[in-house]
Amino acid sequence: PPAAMYPAACQDVNYAIRWLKAHAEEFGSKAEWVGGLGTSSGGHLILLSALRPNDSRYTVHPATGQDASLAFVMACWPVADPLKRYTVKKAAGVQRFVAAHAAFWPTEADMEDANPTQILTRGEATPLPPALVIQGTNDDNLTPDMTSGFASAYAAAGGKVTFESFPGQPHAFIPGNPTSPDSQRGLSLMKDFVHRCT
Fold first, then answer.
1. 76: left (phi > 0), else alpha (psi -120 to 50), else beta?
2. Average pLDDT over residues 118-129
3. Taking the C-alpha atoms of 87, 89, 95 and 98 in order, what is their torsion angle to the nearest 10 degrees?
4. pTM for this structure?
C-alpha cells in the first residue's frame, strides 16, 4: 500500500493458497494438509483468508483446480479487529497507525466488512478450521482484548480454537527474541498444532 490497497493482498494470499494446494505433492505434501500462519497484519490476512476462502472479491487470480480453504490457521498477535485498532489509535493520536490504515484501507466500511472478529459476531456462515492464536500481554500495537475477543468469537461460532497468552511479552516477541523461553514455547506450540492438524 498505497499502490495496492485492500483487497489486493487478500487476492494474492488466496491465490498463493490455491497454487500451493495444486502443487502440494511437488513439495512432498498433500493439498488437504495446507494450512496458514500469519503475524500482525499478516495475521489479519490469514484469518480473513481462512474465514472467506471462496469470496469472489479474493478469487480473481487464475483458477488452479483448488479452493483456498485451509486445514488449519495460526495467527500470532493478529490485527483481528482492524476497525477497533484504527478507532482506538486515532483517538489516542498515534499517527503511524492512522497513516498505515489509510494507506491500506479504502474506507472505514471496508475495515468493518473485512474484520475477522466482526465476521464471526455478525454470524456470517464461514469455514472454521482449527485455529491457534498466540498473544503477548504487553502488546502496545493492539488493544488489550483484541485477540482474546477474536478467540472467544471463534469459539462462540463453533470453531475449535486454542488461545495462548504470554504474560509480559510484546508485539512480535517470537521473531524479536527467538531463543527466549517464551519464544521457544510458542514455536513448540505451533509445531505440535501443525502435527495434530495434519
1. beta
2. 96
3. -40
4. 0.97
